[in-house]
Amino acid sequence: MERAIDTLIEDLKKMILLMGGHVEKSLAQATAALLSKDLSMFDGVHAIEKLVNEDHVKVDNACMQLLAKQGPVAKDLRLILSVIKINNDLERMGDQAVNISYTGKDYLGRRPIPAQLGDIQKMSEIAGRMVKGSLDSFVRGDIEQAKQILMMDDEVDHLKNKVFKDCLAHMKAHSEDVEAGLDLILIARNLERLGDHATNIAEDVIFAFTGKDVRHGGKFG
User: Fold this and answer.
1) What span, in angstroms and rounded, lies between the C-alpha atoms of 114 and 34?
2) Cα 171–chain centre separation
3) Which of 46, 64, 145, 195 lies in disulfide reach of 156, CB 3.0 to 4.6 Å?
4) Alpha-carbon gap, residue 204 to 198, rounded angstroms
């Protein structure tokens, strides 16, 4: 027999998926604007951020109502607490996409360093898959998929380190490109943070469905 709280939790999952979709779109649009050199596309990122912020408030309010009126315990409580944390991570991801938008607009006003954009694009694609995969794992309660997201974070970190190293080498050889190089480093840093937030969500999924805390080197087993 289905409990009332089950329906409310399913509604929460739908809200989180909608918010995650907005974050994915925001990241994709910021990256596309950078790669296509289309300044007008950056404006769309700011419009999407407003939707993400609205989602953030709605999810928080829904969670507070559930906690106050349903008195959840055990697995239900873990799920709701995880939604609250996931909600905050998604909101921060929206902020990171906006940061990429601002820095990308600055970068497009400078002499480009096209050799680095391939790695930036790869980082964005992986981060986008991490966002989608982490949320899918939450909705499905798929622990194995959540574990895969944790491993994908290493790819993002590797690419970030490569962008840092390559940009620094370029700036040493071409001092006139220091500002452009710093812009790309900042963009890579924001993409890395996006990946970190997706990792946080995957860790929350594992906690929500198993009760195991795998943060800070905690074990799956």
Assistant:
1) 11
2) 29
3) 195
4) 10
Cα-based distances in Å from 201 to 61, 87, 145, 149, 188: 19, 9, 12, 9, 20
71 pLDDT higher than 90: no
Q: What is the pLDDT of residue 168?
A: 96
Q: What is the pLDDT of residue 219?
A: 58
What is the model's pTM? Answer: 0.92
What percent of the chain shows pLDDT beyond 90? 81
> What 3 state SS string does the chain have?
CCCHHHHHHHHHHHHHHHHHHHHHHHHHHHHHHHHHCCHHHHHHHHHHHHHHHHHHHHHHHHHHHHHHHHCCCHHHHHHHHHHHHHHHHHHHHHHHHHHHHHHHHHHHCCCCCHHHHHHHHHHHHHHHHHHHHHHHHHHHCCHHHHHHHHHHHHHHHHHHHHHHHHHHHHHHHCHHHHHHHHHHHHHHHHHHHHHHHHHHHHHHHHHHHHCCCCHHHCCCC
Amino acid code (one letter) for 122: K
End-to-end CA, the chain: 32
